[in-house]
């Protein structure tokens, strides 16, 4: 049974996969700061020594000989409302930090590390004890939209990964609300249900960019019955889709044979958006939608099972959808 908090199922806003970056750290002598936001789980190879000692898949600072603490600043790839953070000390045993704290800031534009250091940061996680070689989970209660997070370790040591889970909140000033991907995670869409997530998370379907390997898509277990797999997505706002893209890139012997799309508006009955359509392996399929209707949710059915790299649903927000989109941003500022 999975007893992890619900917020851990939300996307990692800091991940390199969605455009996150560790823009600064005061020290990284033993292991590079960029490792903090790698999407893959930490790894460890015993007796793999470099010229600075054991090579760690994480961020590790030198041993402090004076008072103070070490810090790293992460620019979130997806600015949004933070629900919780994970300070993962995997494989750090005699060299993990005994305490950590997390702060955040919201800023427009592209400030330098020096400019960020002059801002007033808000504490999300006060100085809290850590356990070595473990995921340390901290729930966050803040309704604001943040663009950067700062991890402070007290006084020094190593952290394998820093995860910042939450809900993306897009800036409407940076988008054309009449022509956007209604199903994009970065625009505020989210997965609400799925039949199966055996191999990988269904939220990968709506993540930014192209999948570079099979593991960056959504793949289900092999079915041994007469059913089929599916995923449901709440769109970024009420809109009218005009083009759908079903991308099976990297899925060759395990792509679905067919797929269909259904839509609904405000919890109403599901209706056909794209009829059951044959798919090819390792292919970006694009289908224009000639007679699309307004929808708030979409359901992708794949037959009978398999993997999909990306789902894109291009269209425009309705008047009500635009209002909700803008209101969501304004409420989190």
TrEMBL record:
| Catalysed reactions listed for this entry | allantoate + H2O = (S)-ureidoglycolate + urea
What is the name attached to this protein's record? Probable allantoicase
Q: Which organism is it from?
A: Amycolatopsis alkalitolerans
What GO terms in the biological process aspect are recorded for it? allantoin catabolic process; purine nucleobase metabolic process
Which InterPro entries does the record cross-reference, listed alphabetically? Answer: Allantoicase (IPR005164), Allantoicase_dom (IPR015908), Galactose-bd-like_sf (IPR008979)
Q: Which GO terms describe its molecular function?
A: allantoicase activity
UniProt keyword Hydrolase present: yes
What keywords tag this UniProt record? Answer: Hydrolase, Purine metabolism
What enzyme category does the UniProt record give?
Answer: hydrolase
What is this protein's gene name? alc
User: Residue ranges of the Allantoicase domain?
Assistant: 19-168, 188-316
Instruction: Name the PANTHER family for this protein.
Output: ALLANTOICASE, INACTIVE ALLANTOICASE-RELATED
Q: What is its EC number?
A: 3.5.3.4
Taxonomic lineage: Bacteria, Bacillati, Actinomycetota, Actinomycetes, Pseudonocardiales
Q: What pathway does the UniProt record associate with this protein?
A: Nitrogen metabolism; (S)-allantoin degradation; (S)-ureidoglycolate from allantoate (aminidohydrolase route): step 1/1
Please give the superkingdom of this protein's source. Answer: Bacteria
In the record, the note on similarity to other proteins reads: Belongs to the allantoicase family.
